[in-house]
Amino acid sequence: MTVRIVTDSVTDIPPAVIAELGISIIPVLVRFGEETFRDGIDITNDQFYERLAKSKIMPTTAVPSLDMFARTYARLAEETDEILVLMVSSKLSGLHNAAVQSANLMESKCRIEVVDTGCAVMSQGFVVIRAAQAAKEGASLDEILEIVHRNLPRVEIRAAFDTLEFLKRGGRVGRAAALMGSILKVNPIITIKDGLVEPAGRARSRAKAIDMLYEFAAGYSHIEELAVEDAACPDDADQLVKRLGAIFPEERIYRSRTTPVIGTHTGPGLLLVALLGDK
Fold it and tell me: Do 140 and 159 fall into the same domain?
């Protein structure tokens, strides 16, 4: 039986890829005051950013109930006897803990393995895609786990922000707080290291920030997967994609807008590059 792959909506995997590979998504909850939306189901990316621009109420996020995980596991257990769950860094979210708790409560004989990827967005997404591709080709759960652990050290991101205030408010700024508090207008650059948000530099202008994202990717000797994501700054993202086309086939670059759960913690203006490769 084919191993089934589960992940969360933090991955930002394009919907077409999710459908093609049969990946199951656990949606994070996004809240505007008393209104609650399932990320990517009850509210689209465009609807979220339109609302964020107009709303006086700042959004928050919440981990879905254990029942949502349990229902996903139960549905998949009717199709397979092996499930692999790949969650966003446990240092950034309670999703991994919820996934483990729900798996431990399952009475099914289905084997469920939950992995803390230690990453997020499309760096997490690329590992999920590799796992789903292997599952589709008939690999066993143990073989897929080997693929996952082999590729996790090979993914990395760089992200340029207009401001870190959204991350600070959500308690996820980590050591990147060192980039805050400057009297100068700067674009903070962050990465994720050991599961936490870490500073990776600062740019004096948006143009320089885009240069730094390009230089990050260009510093790799071998790139297998590449993605450009944005939070309501598509022109900057399109410009970056064209530049990256000089070092990687432009038609193979994953291009997406970050999902509402990411936008809640970054605000508009986020531009990021995620890749899987070797330096």
Answer: no
